[in-house]
Design goal:
alpha/beta, Rossmann fold
Length: 393
């Protein structure tokens, strides 16, 4: 018997390359083509759209979509989403990022209302939370409004996918549990370059050649406030002030709106020969083995891919205990956990690993086991397909 393909429309605010975009890319490219037709919509061009095009996925631009709040733009985005849903007539609308989750759910409500009025099938609306917006560094009233908007949006969403236990527990306090579904992120093992080749890449393209026995601390992060990089610079500065050892370098892979401010801070601290920015690097995980230590000082996270990839590379990791990071790291077993926004704690943890090669090796070995056994991509895909399959049209 002929089975009609189920049409999935992914909607995400920005086409940069972060965790939410990686999630959309993995789902869009891994769903069985004989069972699913996939379309992705986002605001503007960028690495996500480029990668989806290369993978043969049809994409749609939503010109008014942007992360910052602007009333006129929000109305335009709502209208563009509503028209998009009417044009594409998807079986499932899968929303990603806070703004897409809110405006997309509202537009889908009016689309479904129109479908019902015309005796046509409604679309199922799913929303994946990549870290709650009200957990970001904001004023009290902003957090209240975001939480209120999230609660209202949830009324128009059939299911809400949480990628970590902390966000799931938070959701249970204001969203009916029947709407919640826990599916942790998963990764495919990157094609890591050997350490020597990865180091050669950085020597040729981004930084001065490190001296022998140099300890390289690295991270992959969008240069935004949520990634806590200002605190990382403070922590590195504290380490440099308290030691005469100059064999330390920090590499930050990524691009973003705070690059100039971060560079100014580095200059003020006199760390121009210690901390280096590479800008955006495609498939950055390939170069992880150049690092001795991976650090993730974020203020907000979902279940970070970069951390999982660093662990898969066998790196000892230091990460702020936010979002789903404690789902991944067991402190002093497969990595080190520190409080967020705490430069002294971060500098102490980094200094511990800088000075203790045996601990780096031990944590790295356990990290590989965690990444391979608990966070495989195929498990995430299978669980998501199972959820999609519960909604038959």
């Amino acid at each position: 018997m002929f089975m009609q393909k189920k049409k999935i429309l992914y909607v995400i605010t920005k086409s940069v390359w972060g965790g939410a975009q990686r999630y959309v890319f993995d789902l869009a490219t891994e769903l069985p083509r004989d069972k699913f037709e996939v379309v992705a919509a986002s605001g503007g061009s960028g690495p996500l759209i480029t990668k989806l095009h290369s993978a043969g996925i049809r994409t749609i631009d939503i010109p008014a979509f942007q992360r910052d709040i602007h009333v006129i733009k929000e109305l335009q985005t709502f209208w563009q989403l509503f028209k998009l849903f009417r044009q594409e007539k998807p079986d499932i609308i899968h929303l990603n990022s806070s703004k897409a989750g809110g405006l997309g759910a509202l537009a889908a409500f009016f689309y479904n209302f129109l479908q019902t009025t015309n005796y046509k099938l409604q679309a199922t609306v799913l929303f994946t939370v990549h870290g709650w917006g009200f957990n970001e560094s904001r004023t009290g009233w902003q957090k209240f409004l975001i939480k209120l908007a999230t609660r209202i949006s949830a009324a128009f969403q059939n299911k809400i996918i949480l990628i970590n236990n902390a966000d799931y527990k938070a959701a249970r306090t204001f969203i009916p549990e029947r709407k919640l579904w826990l599916i942790p992120n998963g990764i495919r093992m990157p094609d890591f370059l050997p350490r020597r080749e990865a180091l050669e890449f950085f020597k040729k393209n981004t930084i001065r050649a490190p001296a022998s026995n140099t300890v390289i601390i690295g991270t992959i992060a969008e240069l935004t406030k949520n990634k806590g990089l200002f605190y990382l610079i403070d922590a590195i500065n504290q380490i440099k002030q308290r030691t005469t050892n100059n064999k330390l370098q920090t590499i930050i892979i990524g691009e973003g709106e705070n690059r100039k401010k971060l560079q100014d801070q580095i200059k003020q601290c006199g760390l121009e020969n210690t901390i280096f920015f590479t800008g955006f690097i495609p498939d950055a995980a390939r170069y992880l083995k150049a690092f001795n230590i991976f650090v993730l000082p974020s203020l907000k996270e979902g279940l970070p891919y970069t951390l999982l990839e660093a662990m898969a590379a066998g790196l000892p990791t230091v990460a702020a205990n936010v979002g789903g990071i404690s789902d991944i790291i067991q402190n002093n077993e497969n990595g080190l956990l520190i409080p967020a926004a705490d430069p002294p704690a971060l500098s102490l943890a980094l200094k511990t690993l800088i000075n203790d090669t045996a601990s780096r090796i031990r944590l790295g070995k356990h990290a590989v086991q965690t990444a391979k056994t608990k966070f495989a991509l195929n498990v995430m895909i299978e669980k998501t397909i199972s959820l999609y399959s519960t909604y038959e049209h």
